[in-house]
Amino acid sequence: MTPRVVRSRDEFVQLIRDRRDELQLTMETLDAVTGLADGLCSKLLAPNPTKGMGAISLKALLGALALGIAEVRIIEDPAQAKRMAPRWTKRKRPDFTKRGQLSFGTLLEGTSASQSGDSNGDDHEQGPDTGEDRRRVASEAAGES
What we know:
The protein is 48% helix and 0% strand. 8% of the residues are buried. By secondary structure, it is mostly helical. Residues 81-145 are annotated as: Disordered.
């Protein structure tokens, strides 16, 4: 089988169908070899699939057909980016999902500053930085002593 570029789910399913045809396997044989429920491969590989391919069925199909995913490169489509750019709204607050960027104390300091109307928060004490300090602040916030 020659390597090929797959850009959509439909192209991916077609690649699996082509491999099944290349090996001259029936859907029943594919069901048996994958260990999936009888008839599931037909539903997954139909021109209009009635079932969606999840992690388990994908792994089973790739293994049964001796296929592997060798390389995945995610690239930006410039034409699509140009069409979508007007719809992208930038976040107003910092992205706190990246670990290690801000300490818990910095978060509390920022919260205190915004609640008091102070723009820079300089007159607020440093927030808790240790696990013990965090537990104490959480207990106080919950009304526990």
